[in-house]
Amino acid sequence: MNVLIKSAKIVDKLSKLNGKIVDILIQNGSIKQIGKGISAQKNCTEINAKNLHVSAGWFDMRANFCDPGNEYKEDLTTGLEAAAKGGFTGVLVMPDTQPVNDGKSGIEYVLNNTKNNLVDALPAGSLSHNCEGKEIAELYDMHSAGAVAFTDNKKSVGSVGLLNRALLYSQSFNGLIMNFPSSGELSKGGQINEGAISTQLGLKGIPSLAEELIVSRDIFLAEYCNARIHLTNISTKQSVKLIKDAKKKGLNITADVNSYHLLLNEDELIGFDTNFKVNPPLRTKEDSKALIAGLKDGTIDAICSDHTPEDIEEKQCEFDHAAFGMVNLQTSFALANMATSNKLELGDLISKLTTNPRKILGLENPSIAEGEIANLTVFNPTQEWTLEKEQVVSKSYNTPLLGKTLTGAVLAVINNNTIKRFDS
């Protein structure tokens, strides 16, 4: 694979080339030359367009691929296709499949069935057996097999004792514990954010307190165990404050936010569109502002897609019975880009998609330098595009963004000596 990227602005806050407009020549999967006026050779793919930007390949920390067990919603192949089209060269695959990925064989299933793909699929193992929150799963065996984190995904760990033991045990091999903070008792039966909109629509609400109580609990546990923990799907203003205060104390806490929580809010639910039904629910405008502020000051470390495919029967039904979640890999960057425009520097935004997720997971960060393996995302942050149904490569179409004009387009991804272009 030989590629020449012409006149692209490098977006990489760790690079001496950050902000410079250069040509990048890639030969056999490695960066051969970076400079100006580089000419394309024979059998060389050239990428040349207005306002080209290039960064290290993006990494998504929350992707649900439903494989094995529910491949009719999504499988590993289509999930990785969606990731590539969304600009991602790496994803963390959630473990709550059928069967649950709670042992060595499940980790090997993901790795073996995603070999030689442009997008690196890294498996998360479940924190507890069958994601039931009763007994710790085989964490070390999964770690040895290639798991890079442990989580029960959207099944928040209710047992303080189990989480305490997991935090202590995982330190022996530097394993990362991820928890989705949500009190099952307070959120049970809830459909959307608790507030004026839920009252107006007559829907049971999910209070912000359901998240904030568990955020507070997990911070105390991490401090008690002197352990690190990653809090995922943060959605409220108070949660941001709690995490910020914990970081000021020097605790080893990291956190992520879903891109759709940055741009969308509870007002979207007025029309009872089940594609806006997500977990945690869309919160208030004030919460969205606090999340963006948390990104800006470093309280929130990463931005995720929380890609959650659901089939049509799970969404085209009464709101109370509809499943939570939306497909978002293809639209995640655009949503984050639009929400943070003029509020967050582009370089800081890209860090939340590249450097920070890999650092949290203990992965090596790709470098844009001569002699390095090419792991790149090529994009135009100002290009507008419309999401049409025929463009969706996921098996599921549960997104409220069909027909919407978005800003921030992915033009190409390069990784593992492979290129996929989306600029034609």
Layout of helices and strands:
Elements: E1 2-10, E2 21-27, E3 30-35, E4 45-47, E5 53-56, E6 58-63, H1 76-85, E7 88-93, H2 104-112, E8 120-125, H3 139-145, E9 149-150, H4 160-170, E10 178-179, H5 184-187, E11 192-193, H6 196-201, E12 205-206, H7 208-225, E13 229-231, H8 237-248, E14 253-258, H9 259-263, H10 285-296, E15 302-304, H11 312-315, H12 332-340, H13 346-351, H14 355-361, E16 376-386, E17 405-415, E18 418-421
Parallel strand pairs: 1-4, 1-5, 6-7, 7-8, 8-9, 10-13, 11-12, 13-14, 14-15
Antiparallel strand pairs: 1-2, 2-3, 5-16, 16-17, 17-18
Helix pairs in contact: 2-3, 4-7, 7-8, 8-10
Characterise the protein shown here.
The chain is α/β, with parallel strands linked by helices and 424 residues long. α2 (104-112) links the parallel β7 (88-93) and β8 (120-125). The model has no long low-confidence stretch (mean pLDDT 97). The chain has helices spanning 76-85, 104-112, 139-145, 160-170, 184-187, 196-201, 208-225, 237-248, 259-263, 285-296, 312-315, 332-340, 346-351, 355-361, and strands at residues 2-10, 21-27, 30-35, 45-47, 53-56, 58-63, 88-93, 120-125, 149-150, 178-179, 192-193, 205-206, 229-231, 253-258, 302-304, 376-386, 405-415, 418-421. 28% of the residues lie in helices and 22% in strands.
